[in-house]
Design goal:
Blueprint lengths: L2 H17 L4 H12 L5 E15 L5 E12 L2 E5 L14 E5 L3 H5 L4 H8 L3 E2 L4 E3 L2 E13 L5 E13 L9 E11 L1 E2 L5 H6 L3 H16 L6 H8 L8 H12 L3 H9 L6 H9 L13 H14 L5 H14 L3 E6 L6 E9 L2 E9 L5 H21 L1
Parallel strand pairs: 4-7
Antiparallel strand pairs: 1-2, 1-10, 2-3, 5-7, 6-7, 7-8, 8-9, 11-12, 12-13
Helix pairs in contact: 1-2, 9-11, 11-13
Amino acid sequence: MRVDQFLYLMILLAASTAYGAEMTSFAKLQEARLRNPQAEIKATHLDRDWLVDAADDDGDVLRLRLTHGSLREGKIRLLRPRPDGAVFGSDCPEYIGKLPSERTLRDVSTIGQLEKLLGPGTFGFHADQIDDRYHSGWSRVCFGENNEGDLVYLSLSANYSIGVGAPIGTPKSVEGVRIRQGVLRPEKLGDKEEERIYIDGATEFANHEAIKAKRRMEYPLPLRQLIETDQYPGDSDLQHLAKAMQQIRNSPDPKLFQQLAVRMDDVGMASLMEKALMDRHGLLELKPWREEQWRVAINACIDALPETSGYARSKLVEQLMELSGGGRIEFQDGDGKGGTSIEFKQVEHGMSRTFSGAADPPPISETQVEFRHRFFQMNKSASDE
């Protein structure tokens, strides 16, 4: 071990003593990384759990109990794993050493500057185009020492934008930063109040599963059964959901599609309908629809249009438009507030869509007739080929 590494380790061990014996596990992870930068330590229980009250810009407090530590590819993390193996971003902060000041973080102007200060983060999955710019998000969860020598948990999220068609390497402009942070401290062994307030991953998992089970009871069958499959614990490879969706394609129940249609404004319902009808990007690797079963599913969706309103109707029409080849359509919103126009255009990597108001939309019965005609023409064209 080099002299500078030895001195650094002594500083870490001194910090361990300052925080108490509960820092031993963290110091061991640091020591292992100093001895061998390629060393790997799978997630193991810490000598003591780490607790944090992390407050955001609005004063909302997230209470965490971090129970495990790991070392992989030279990166040390504290973790709050769940029984199904999942670890959320907020539950696995990465150690980055000295933390920049809050003022420094709020003064940044580009995502590149944030990455230099905090390391690589996570970009949002989706980007919205507004005028001539794309808008999305970036986030980073980490921990390190502040100027007072405390270990601090830091979760930062940033909104950014970049010009449409901008060359590769163009800086992404930060348009706002939100910070959640709090001082990490070791648990007090045997403290029942701390055990009640700061729960581990297993307890949180059990609580969430109970809440989800209660909420599922609000949905009718067969939709409730599909939601339960979609929420199956540990199904990260979507095998259970894929099997259920294939069964739906093999034998579609009109009632299921009608139940989904009228609840498209509930969280997750539009996504389930999309997976059932489209399997976008082949994510579930489903076998193609057979024509007879396809007609059953599509007709059920069209039949359900009068029972929908607002966002649910808009999402259903949007999906039916995409499935029928795009174009333009006007329809009543169903909530007595007028109508909506949706226009789909084919672009290089799919379809673009434009939404606007419609002053005099046709009755929803005419919208149903138009969709039946669209899908009839599609089936006719396919049979003529």
